[in-house]
Design goal:
The protein has 2 domains: about 140 residues, N-terminal domain of MutM-like DNA repair proteins (Alpha-Beta Barrel), CATH 3.20.190.10; about 120 residues, Orthogonal Bundle (Helicase, Ruva Protein, domain 3), CATH 1.10.8.50. The protein is of the alpha+beta class. The longest helix is centred in the C-terminal third of the chain and has 22 residues. Strands 1-6-7-5 form a 4-stranded antiparallel sheet, with no helix packed on it. It is elongated and about 60 Å long. Strand 2 and strand 3 form a beta hairpin. Helix 5 crosses helix 6. Helix content is about 25%, strand content about 20%.
Length: about 290
């Protein structure tokens, strides 16, 4: 799932390549992706794309006062295209969900971008709204993970009897962190994903806040300036434990372990995070805290 660094890097890429250009047409290929009807998608045609920004994991394109807001969900992505075909795509064919055509620069081929989603579970969501706050997911967002200081972070965790993994990924608590970077943050902070948020000590709070900022800013620094096509690879290259089950931890050499759930999983290093003890790999176990 694209998280804060990837969505911020996509917004920066679009500010460089798309802002200032006119939207000539928007093709919808996956009807289930569009979540609003007023204003219609067709209202974007003929308007200039004037800004690109991020709210948590939502990408927000300002189109002359209307907002094209996208949540890429688990398997969605944005692909920059050159020489776009003039014929509209056939609905329901392949991973394409939506195509945005931009007015070509003088002497250049037509350009734009595709929103795609792989797999059978479709979660990619597109909204056309007059204000980003009209998008329910944005209205519910907690403070951005890169804006909270240590004191604010401590206040967010205080009294919250939930596991750190779930707390970091709860967008109503903290916006922008998903499955991958929560694993990376907890590994960097040397904390168990199942430690309860309200049991974090002052020293652990400082480590966790520092790890959150360093992990996210480090990933963002690596990805800013990259083309959309290379961002996924850059993200994978920087991961220490996430999606590295069975491989050695780059910090201590222990084997990275996994806990699987019904529709997701987490990865961690026992030596770095849980005192060398493996976590039970079943949802209803008494888990190490």
């Amino acid at each position: 799932m694209p998280e804060l660094p990837e969505v911020e890097a996509l917004a920066a890429f679009l500010r460089e390549n798309a802002v200032g250009r006119v939207v000539t047409r928007v093709d919808l290929a996956a009807v289930q992706a569009i979540k609003t009807f007023d204003p219609p998608l067709s209202a974007l045609a003929g308007l200039e794309l004037t800004g690109a920004m991020r709210h948590g994991k939502f990408l927000d394109l300002d189109v002359s006062g209307l907002h094209l807001v996208v949540h890429l969900a688990r398997a969605g992505w944005l692909h920059w295209r050159t020489n776009l075909p003039p014929a509209p795509p056939k609905p329901g064919k392949g991973p394409l969900a939506m195509r945005v055509h931009l007015e070509p620069r003088e002497g250049e081929l037509p350009e734009g971008f595709d929103l795609t989603e792989q797999g059978t579970r479709k979660g990619l969501a597109v909204y056309v709204v007059r204000s980003p706050s009209e998008v329910p997911g944005i209205a519910r967002l907690g403070p951005d993970a890169l804006t909270v200081d240590t004191e604010q972070f401590g206040a967010l965790l205080a009294g919250r009897h939930t596991q750190l993994k779930g707390t970091l990924t709860d967008q109503t608590v903290l916006a922008g962190i998903g499955n991958a970077y929560s694993d990376e943050i907890l590994h960097a902070a040397k904390l168990s994903p199942f430690k309860m948020a309200d049991k974090v000590t002052d020293d652990e709070l400082l480590r966790l806040h520092a790890a959150m900022r360093e992990t996210l800013t480090g990933a963002l620094d690596r990805q800013l300036g990259q083309r959309a096509a290379t961002l996924k690879g850059e993200k994978r290259a920087g991961l220490q434990v996430h999606a590295r089950t069975g491989l050695p931890c780059p910090v201590c050499g222990d084997t990275v372990r996994e806990v699987s759930f019904a529709d997701t999983s987490l990865q961690y290093c026992p030596t770095c995070q849980t005192g060398g003890k493996p976590l039970a790999d079943r949802r209803m176990s008494k888990l190490l805290r």
